[in-house]
Amino acid sequence: MLTIRRANAKVLAALREVAGYDRTIRGFHSADLEEFDEAVLRTVEEQQRRGATGEDVAAVAASRVIVWGGGAAIARHIEVDDGSGDAAFARELGRIWWSTTAELLARAGARVVLTGRSAESLRKVADSLPGGAEVIAADLTAPGEAKRVFETTIGHVGRLDVLVNNEGAENFTPPTRSPKPTSCGGSTAARRCCSPAARPRTWPSTVAAAS
């Protein structure tokens, strides 16, 4: 995401400036984020109804912080950083969104299973959660890893109610060209594996946080 945004930084900066006084451009510029905001809000409210997220969480405020706060942080980083800090920034932004989601679920009483490439990072988050969490180090883009994570997860907790996707990409490719591949293959494979054990739903609820 950072690579694509940095390559289009001047265009995005111009859009942000014009959006300040042109309603049409403002609507175009914010349309995707507004849809994402609404999707996150629906997810938070659904989880509250099911008791998976605490009632003390302000759903509207939480969705705005997650979506719009992350976008503002990305824009500021690109403005002041020459690119050498992109990897660290992406890692920390992903960790903030991901670990906060894990903490909310844990505090609501969920049995949490964490997966990612770094076992050390996973363990640090797990140790900070109320009640801890199971840790499965894996690269979900590697063949067979999604199935292994799924089977190990079911072995630990028995069923899967919520799948958190913390990967993704943005695409500024013109409509006349083929879109570039995104990094969502791992989460797609994970969701396909999850279907048989997601009860009573056919699919688990999914929280998407693109990093």
In short:
The chain is mainly α and 211 residues long. The chain is 58% helix and 8% strand.
Query: Rough shape?
Result: globular
Sketch the major β-sheet. 2 strands, parallel
In DSSP terms (H or I, runs of 4 or more residues), the helix count works out at 8
The first-level CATH class is given as Alpha Beta
What does this structure look like?
The protein is mostly helical. It has a single domain, classed as Rossmann fold, CATH 3.40.50. The protein is 58% helix and 8% strand. It contains 8 helices and 4 strands. The strands form 2 sheets. It has a two-stranded parallel sheet. It has a two-stranded parallel sheet with strand order 3-4. Helix 3 packs across helix 4 and helix 4 packs antiparallel against helix 5. The longest helix has 28 residues. It is globular. 19% of the residues are buried. The C terminus is likely disordered.
